[in-house]
Recover the amino acids of this structure.
């Protein structure tokens, strides 16, 4: 079965049954809750939900070392290609079949600045990813987003929903519970909290609030979860 590893904040990696390594929103080196080294991270594909520093900070060094293909919005993909990296552009609502599975970029409501060197002219619509692995498992990485009524469109299409609960910059716990109501996933994994004081949250209280709507899996940085 595929394995999902949480690296802290909103950084996850997935190892598929075929041994393909996906990394979502690589933020390792300056991530205060990541324990380990960027050098230990494997990547065949790097998925970037948006351009904020806490989601893309290590994308370039990771892609340079591993040769991974970067999956991101057209604007961020263009930036990466300009830097000599391999990228697969997508955009909101569009899906692409990759060797490891299908990736559809989903809507997110958030900021569009791209915080990479000399990226001043690059802004983009932030997004999320609905990933359907070859194993059939369906993972939804919401990215940084407000609660969206569009999430109702995902109902019945998600096994594991990875949702921000940090508040201030994204949904807080209360809106994340409504997102669970909309999506009806089997499992919910909260993220984007407790990295820094402004986004401190109590994940147990979130789990209690979700109740029997879904199983809540609280992951600590470094935890692995067999999907
Ligand atoms: Ni952000
Ligand atoms: Mn963020």
């Amino acid at each position: 079965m595929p394995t999902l590893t949480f690296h802290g904040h909103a950084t996850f990696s997935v190892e598929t049954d075929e041994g393909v390594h996906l990394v979502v929103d690589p933020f390792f080196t300056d991530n205060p809750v990541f324990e380990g080294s960027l050098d230990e991270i494997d990547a065949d594909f790097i998925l970037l939900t948006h351009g904020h520093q806490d989601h893309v900070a290590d994308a370039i060094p990771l892609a340079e070392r591993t040769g991974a293909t970067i999956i991101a919005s057209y604007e961020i993909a263009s930036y990466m290609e300009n830097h000599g990296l391999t990228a697969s552009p997508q955009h909101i609502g569009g899906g692409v079949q990759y060797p490891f599975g299908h990736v559809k970029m989903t809507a997110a409501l958030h900021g569009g600045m791209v915080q990479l060197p000399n990226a001043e002219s690059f802004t983009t619509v932030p997004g999320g990813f609905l990933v359907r692995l070859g194993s059939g498992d369906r993972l939804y990485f919401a990215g940084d987003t407000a609660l969206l009524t569009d999430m109702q469109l995902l109902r019945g299409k998600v096994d594991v929903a990875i949702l921000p609960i940090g508040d201030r910059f994204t949904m807080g716990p209360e809106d994340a519970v409504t997102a669970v109501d909309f999506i009806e996933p089997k499992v919910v994994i909260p993220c984007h909290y407790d990295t820094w004081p402004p986004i401190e949250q109590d994940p147990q209280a979130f789990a209690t609030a979700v109740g029997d709507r879904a199983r809540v899996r609280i992951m600590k940085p470094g935890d692995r979860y067999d999907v």
